Each structure stands twice: as structure tokens, then as C-alpha cells.
Amino acid sequence: MDLFDHARQEQIAREAPLAARMRPRTLDEFVGQEHIVGPGRLLRRAIQADQLSSLIFYGPPGTGKTTLARIIANTTQAHFIAINAVLAGVKDIRRAIADAQERRKLYGQRTILFVDEVHRFNKAQQDALLPHVENGTIILIGATTENPYFEVIKSLVSRSRIFQLRRLSEDDLRRIAHQALADSERGYGRLNVQIDDDALDHLVNVANGDARAVLNALELAVETTPPDEEGVIHVDLAVAEESIQRRAVLYDKDGDAHFDTISAFIKSLRGSDPDAALYWLARMLYAGEDPRFIFRRMLIFAGEDVGMADPNAIRVVTACAQAFDYVGLPEGRFHLAEACIYLATAPKSNSAFALFDAIAAVEREREGEVPDHLKDASRDAEDLGHGQGYLYPHAYRDHWVAQQYLPENLQGRVFYQPTDQGYEGKIREEVARRREAQLAAMLEEEHSPVAIQGDRGHERGETPPPAQSRWLQRTLSNVGEGLAALRDRVIAAAGIERHSLALDLNAGTGLLTWEAVRRAPVGGVWALAADERTAEALRNQAAYLDALSQPVILCGALEELPDLIARQGQGDVRFDVIIGRNALTRHPDKAAAAGIIASLLDEGGRLSLAEVVPRHAQRLYRLVDLSPLDEALRQRLVAAEEAIYADPDDPMVNWDAADLQRAFQSVGLSHVRVETETRTTRRHVGAEQLARWFGDSPDRRRPGYAQRLRQHLSAEELAQVQTLFESHLRDRAVAWSSQIVYLSARR
Questions:
Q1: Domain locations in the chain?
Q2: pLDDT above 60 for 487
Q3: Within 13 Å of residue 385, how many CA atoms lie on the same side as its CB?
Q4: Which residue stretches of 16-113 are H helix?
Q5: What does the mean pLDDT of the chain come to?
Q6: 732-746 vs 670-685, strand pairing mode
Q7: Helix (H/G/I), strand (E/B), else coil: 193
Q8: How many CB atoms are located within 10 Å of the residue 538 CB?
Q9: Of residues 107, 73, 53, the one with CA closest to residue 99
Q10: Same CATH fold, 472-613 and 33-164?
Q11: Calpha distance 646→523 (Å, rounded)
């Protein structure tokens, strides 16, 4: 680059629009999108560590897609190439690939290829990128306003991590505007600009989450307002309204917003919400959607979702569509509104889907012959008997008679299931009554004294598994299903999203951790392991994931967690979601633990825990028949075991679900809900288990079962109890009861 090129670039930078001049250069300058670039988030960690894989940024205009790519360009050690898919072709792609291959060969340097508007590439152009993304020649960063799952080829999507950017909040836009007013190098800090609060509110409101729109409007307001006698550029509401007069609505008739908006409209109609339906209708009209397209969708809806619950709906929508054709816009909006409100408030039935069940039966089953009595009798009634036996309904009372109309192989099949909504509710009972009569007619004709045999697999030569194998299958299935149900319930209450930053308080085997990793592929997961052995096991499992997907594994106690997080050097990390299984069961101070957890939750964050309540654990004396023991010994045994769970000084058993709820309420969390579940599983009691119960406890801090009993029973009595337990339980499966408390809360 010579001096003339350098001077020309500096001039271009000075004369660039405010939105271009104010583009953030570092993550610290970047405003918004905390769900993907906030402290501790996966993308922020990847940028800071320069460990990027291929990415696609997807979101509305002005939300920071290109800016994030430029920030990566400023921080990475890789060579950075930027092209725009609107202007570039296969030739430009090949040139970029050749450059990347050369740098990799000569210097061992990676190349990041940024493709703006990547959805504008056709399939051939996207295919040209694929092998080089796959072999690591380039790291692709794409930016698009359209849904990449529809607009980018599947093979590229599968090799990229998708980050969805959201519209910026009004607070974000205010911060961006204030940055521009304060920056003396790139913004208006060198000028004396005063903007009224209501003027800035107007700019922010009408910009509709688009940073570029608010900066463009601010630039127009400042540049077109002359300073007063004191050199003050005063931007009031009138100036702001002139600078940005109409809200920008993202709505491409062939794009993602189009389909998303019509989907929201139809779902609002289906949900019988006229307010929401009218809002989405207004959004479409405001953006210039063709009203005839909207009427076509409402006509479909009248048949699909209202259907027989109100057969008049299709007439109303048809009449409104015809009236619109006569009247046109703008008055035709009344007819759009009438059809919308009618459908939203009408009773709903989708029983017309019965047709698709019938089509599936036609595709799936052999073609049934038309019954003879239903065949056309005008040509061959005498020779072939077609039409004979047909009962003419109009000749009977109520113009109906019971006879079969389905092919023989489908006799008794039901496709149409009337709902109890609206008009259909009135005909439901009559349809059912007639079907019962049809069934009676069929049975009257076809019933015969056939011996009905049950399903007896062993009579077909199947060898039943041995008893031990059957028990193992039952036990493993039972435990696995129980853990899966617990995991699903905790995760469902947590509401983990793709961009969530999640923390597992007690990773253990990773039951919750790995599910969180799957649910938050572009957010990030942190997990606390109780000891180094557990942490190492988790790290070994995580090694099979790519570097960006691996959770951050911490090792230590719950009370050490804030310090452990701080040592990671990720800033003030707060989590969207905190989950845990048996994270507090053994903790001696539930209130203190709740305070630590609450301090790590971000505003609006969610907490979901599952805790076994040891106080309600399975009592061993209930597993055996105590009748061989004398009455006094039986009573002392029961009292001795119950005393284990009534110790007020034992943090394992001195709490219940209500105590846990109060602990989290006391630290300021809201919507604290607890639900208890008593779960019964099948457990095998072997010699090792009995030895643990009646041997010395390996944990010196907690006496074992036999040690507890010795406080109430003599050595001889304890021996009797042990003998009884061994005779009743050794190598047997028992029903094992436990209580789990599920706690959810919000910050």
C-alpha cells in the first residue's frame, strides 16, 4: 500500500456513515447479545482463546452479525478474508481458497473466510466451500438474515455452529446512541449535542431493535440541525420524528420473517386469541403482504382448524374474501378483520384430518374390494348380483339404516373422531350411536363361536430367560427409566435454550451435564464435580467432544464455587440456568447454600433441582417379615431405625421439602415451587449390601446401620436381626421406596 492508498482509506473512514464509524472493535465495546457473548459464554471464550470452528451468525439486520465477524478479525491470529455473497462468485471463492492454502503451506497459518449474506450464494457456490471447510483449509464465518436451516445447504450447516442473534433491546440502543454522542474520535463527542429524552425514546422505539437504524437516524438529526448561538445542537422530538418517520419491519415475502409471521398468525387463530391474531395480521399488512395470500391461509384454516365445529366459518371467510375483491384497500381491511376475529373466536375442530388417516390406510393396506351391495347395479345386477342387499336409507325412519359401507378388511375401522366443540358437539352423540349400531350389524353377520387364544410365547417355542436374567433386565430397565425421568423433569423445568449458559451443581456421572450440553450448543455448560476423581472422569468423557462443546469442569465443594468460577478469568459470570441432582442433600447449611446459588443466577435466571430426601428413605425393617422376633425386640428395632431419621443434629435428615423451599425464598428468589414424588424401584440385595449394613461404616463421620442399632440392641439381639435379614433378603429383589423433591425458582 502506497501513501496515496493510505490517505484514501483514511478519507473513506472519516466520511463513512456514523453506523460504520461506530462499529465496535472489541468485545468490550460490543453492546447486546449477552446470551452468546456474555461472560463465560461459549462464543466469548472461543474468541478470547482464538479457538474458532466454522460459525453462522443468523439474525435481523443491525444486530451485530458483521460486527462480531470484524471483532474476530481484530483478535484472531488467523488470516482473515471477507467477501460479500451478493457481489462474489465462484472465482472469488477459489481465489480465497488458494490464498488460504498458500498461507497454510508456507506459514502454517489458519484462514477465516467471512461471507456476508451467505444465503445469497447458490447451491453450487456453497458446494464449492464445503470440501475446504471439511478439511480445515478455511474456517467459515457466515452472516445471514435468513434461517440457515432453510437457506444454507445441510452439509455446511452440519459443519457449522449456529448462533442466533436477537433484536437489540431499547436499553441496548440507548447505550449505542450515547456511545456515539460521547465518542470524540468516531462519533460526536467533539460537538455539543443535546438530545431530549423523548427524542431519543422516539429514535429507539422506531428503530425496532436495529442499531444501524438508530445510528443512521441520529446522524441525520445531528447533521441537519444547525447549532444555536452557543454552539449547541439541540435535537428535540420534532427533529427526531423527521429523522426516522416509519418503523422498519423485517419482512421479506420470500424469506424467513414471512413464514414466521404467517405461522404466528395461524397459531394465534388456532389458540383462539383474537388480540394476537389481529396483531400479526397488522404486522403483515404494515409490511405490505398481499391480502389475498392472507385470505387463502384463512380459508385453509377454516377447513383445517375450525372444520365441523362451525361449518359456517368457511362461508364467512369466503364472503369476506369476495367482499375484499369488490372493495379493495384500504376499506377492505374491515373484511380481513372480520374474517380474522370470526376464526379466532370460533370453536375449533381438526377432525377433517380423518381424511389423511383414510389416505394412510389406502397406502398401507391392501385394496379392499367394494362390497357387492354397494356396487353399481345399473349394468350387471342380474348376472353378478351387484347392488343386491343394499338398504335404501330414505326408505327407513330418520333416513338411516344400519349397514356396512367399508370394505370387508376394514370393517369396524374408525377414521372420523368428532370433537365436543360447537356444532360438532351436537352431532357427536349421534355419530357414536350410529357406529354402535353399525358394529352390532357387523357382529350379527360375522360372529361365530371361535376359540380365542391368548398370547403364550412359550408355546411358540420361545425359551424364557432364567430368573436372574429376568430380574437384571427388570432392575436395569427400572433404574434407567427412573433416572431418565428425573433428568427429563429437571431439564424441562430449567427451560434450557440453545444460547443458555448453564451450571450443573453436582455433575456426578454427568446425567444432567451431558443433556445440558446437547440443549445449549452455542451457550455453554459449567459443571461442578465433588472430587478430582469425578472431575477427571468427566474430562475424559468430554474429550470426545470438539473443544467448543466441552463443558467447563470445576472441582470442589459448593461453598468454593464462586472462587472456582472467578479463577477461570471469564469476568463476572452469571448463569441463565442452574441445575442439580442431590447437590444439597448432604450440605449442612441449606440457607447458606441457597444464597451461594442465588448469587450465581443472572437476572431472570432459572433454577431446577432434584433432591432425594433422606428423612423419607426406605426403612430396612419394612423389607422383612419381623414376626420371628419377639414383640419387644421388634419394637426396639423399629424405634432404633426410626431414630436414625429423627436426629435434629444430622444435616442429612433434619430437613424436608418445606425447609428447602423456605431456604430459597429467604435469599430472594421468586416463584419457588416444590413438588415431591415417591418413587419405587426394584433393587437387588446381595451379600455385599448386607455386609455394608451390618459391618463397620467406612465413613468415620457417619456411623453405619449396625452401629446405630447397637445403641438400642444387645450383641445377641443384633445377631438375630442380621440372621433374619440375611435369610429374607440375600440375593433377592425388593421394592425400594424413596422420596424426591423437585424445586424450581427464578431470580
A1: 33-164, 170-243, 256-349, 472-613, 615-649+687-730
A2: yes
A3: 5
A4: 18-21, 34-37, 42-49, 65-75, 90-107
A5: 81
A6: antiparallel
A7: strand
A8: 23
A9: 107
A10: yes
A11: 43
Interacting residues of 543 by C-beta distance below 8 A, sequence separation 6+: 550
Neighbouring CB atoms inside 10 A of 549's CB total 18
Q: What DSSP letter does each residue of 626-667 carry, written as one string? A: -TTS-HHHHHHHHHHHHHHTT-TT-TTTS--HHHHHHHHHTT
d(CA 168, CA 520): 21
pTM above 0.70, yes or no: no
Residues 6 or more apart whose Cβ sits within 8 Å of residue 149: 157, 162
Q: Indicate the CATH number for domain 256-349.
A: 1.20.272.10
Length of the chain: 747
Tell me the sheet residues that pair with 140: 113
CATH of 472-613, one of 3.30.870.10, 3.30.750.24, 3.40.50.150, 1.10.10.10: 3.40.50.150
Q: How many CA atoms lie within 13 A of 621 on its CB side?
A: 21
Residue among 271, 254, 274, 266 at smallest CA distance from 295: 266
CB 389 within 8 A of CB 373: yes
What CATH architecture does domain 170-243 belong to? Answer: Orthogonal Bundle (1.10)
Q: Hey, what CATH topology would domain 33-164 get?
A: Rossmann fold (3.40.50)
Report the DSSP pairing between strands 501-504 and 524-529.
parallel
> What's the average model confidence in pLDDT over 540-567?
88
For residue 176, give every residue at least 6 positions away whose Cβ sits within 8 Å of its Cβ, in sequence order, or none. Answer: 22, 31, 168, 211, 214, 215
Number of Cβ within 10 Å of residue 31's Cβ equals: 19
What order do you get walking across the sheet with 161-164 strand by strand?
79-84, 111-116, 139-144, 55-58, 161-164
pLDDT at 475: 37
Cβ atoms of residues 344 and 270 within 8 Å = no
Q: Which residue has the cell 471477507?
A: 82
Query: What single letter denotes the amino acid at residue 87?
Result: L
- Does the pLDDT of residue 245 top 50, yes or no? yes
User: Residues 72, 80: contact at Cβ < 8 Å?
Assistant: yes
The x, y and z cell numbers of residue 540, run together, are: 475424559
Sign of CA dihedral 44, 48, 53, 57: positive
Name the residue type at position 453: Q
Residue whose C-alpha cell is 421468586: 670
Q: Are 524 and 506 in contact (CB under 8 A)?
A: no
In whole angstroms, give the CA distance from residue 287 to residue 277. 16
> Quick one: how far is CA 89 from the chain centroid?
37
pLDDT (tens digit per residue) in 34-67: 888 888 888 888 888 888 888 898 888 888 888 8
Q: Where are the alpha helices (DSSP H) in 302-421?
A: 313-327, 333-345, 354-364, 381-384
Is residue 294 a contact partner of residue 336, using CB atoms and an 8 Å limit? yes
Most confident of 121-125, 272-276, 633-637: 633-637
Closest Cα to residue 150, out of 252, 281, 289? 252
Helix/strand/coil (H/E/C) assignment for every residue in 120-158: HCCHHHHHHHHHHHHCCCCEEEEEECCCHHHHCCHHHHH
